[in-house]
What does this fold into?
Amino acid sequence: MPTADCEGNEINLTSFVCQTKRDSVSLFSVLILFLACILGCKSTAPGPSWTKTKVLSHDEDHPSRIIADDSFVYFVNGAGTIAAKNEGTNNIKRISLKDGSVSVLVKGGEHFPSDALAVDDKFLYWSAGGTILRVRKDGGGSEAVVSDAPGSPAEMAVDNENIYWYKTQVYFTDIANVYSLPK
It folds into this structure.
């Protein structure tokens, strides 16, 4: 039965007890030594990583798709539910990484945000059906960048010059086109 001493060195307790018996030291002394080591040693093993998690926002309704930049975390809230659309709670929210405040960046109801989000230095891009929209990261109204995108963009990415996306598959095939368009 391997164990460790107070310095973290592996010792074999069975060998230790046998050696101790040969050296005429009582078993009681071995037990006291063992308990002193166990009770006196502090664990140096790190705790599980999940214990260091931080809750950024509580009780969000059907959150989906999450992306981040250096200042904010953005996510779709209430996505996929007709009730959220009817109630106007299908929003795109942002969480400040500076102070933890949660705010609505795009108010639901008008558009039905999908799971496709992308962010660049000035704008958050999102899709609603065959429309790709953008909103300034500091807030304001949404504007359509692409109003007749083929299909409904399932994933989206942006770089300094273009928007890239592929469409949601309707017939459950693995074949899809990837599209790009200048911003």
Remarks:
- The chain has a mean pLDDT of 77.
